[in-house]
Specification:
Layout lengths: L9 H8 L3 H19 L3 H7 L9 H13 L4
Helix pairs in contact: 2-4
Length: about 80
């Protein structure tokens, strides 16, 4: 599975997400705040409540998947 942690340079960031690395990490903060506002629970709390390991355990993982799908026409 492709992960944002495997991306090495700015060209790869732009081609996979449409954002620079700096823009991505800034957006992760807002993504997490918005997720918690609408869901009423953080991902870490959700992971602690369930006995199943989350496939996307961080907000950065979730955001990368969404951006990658939108950028590459997978939705």
């Amino acid at each position: 599975m492709l992960s944002y942690q495997q991306i090495r340079n700015e060209r790869q960031w732009k081609s996979s997400t449409g954002l620079s690395e700096q823009q991505f990490h800034r957006l992760v903060k807002y993504f997490g705040e918005t997720y918690e506002f609408f869901q009423g629970v953080s991902l870490s709390t959700l992971a602690a409540r369930t006995e199943v390991d989350l496939l996307l355990p961080t907000y950065a993982d979730c955001l990368f998947l969404v951006l990658f799908q939108l950028k590459n026409g997978l939705c």
